[in-house]
Specification:
Helix 2 packs across helix 4 (51-61). By secondary structure, this protein is mostly helical. Strands 1-2 form a two-stranded antiparallel ribbon. The chain is globular. 54% of the residues lie in helices and 8% in strands.
């Protein structure tokens, strides 16, 4: 069975960062307790975040997973 094509929408993360006053990717990594190198790789679509890291990002951004994920191949991550 194929995996569902869920894509992390980095542009939505950036929008929420601006709304929450988080000035940089490094500041988000600190707020979410995620390593800066991991968050960099996620932001460049090198890999998708683990469920644990997705939860940490949601906690830091004050949102739910559905706010950051889109279904389908047309949901291109930045």
């Amino acid at each position: 069975m194929d995996q569902l094509p869920l894509m992390l929408m980095w542009d939505e993360i950036e929008r929420l960062m601006a709304l929450r006053g988080i000035p940089s990717r490094d500041a988000l990594a600190d707020a979410a307790s995620i390593s800066k190198s991991t968050l960099y790789k996620v932001s460049k679509s090198k890999f998708q975040p683990s469920m644990a890291n997705l939860g940490k990002l949601c906690g830091a951004l004050g949102c739910g997973p559905g706010d950051l994920l889109r279904h389908g191949k047309s949901a291109k991550a930045k």
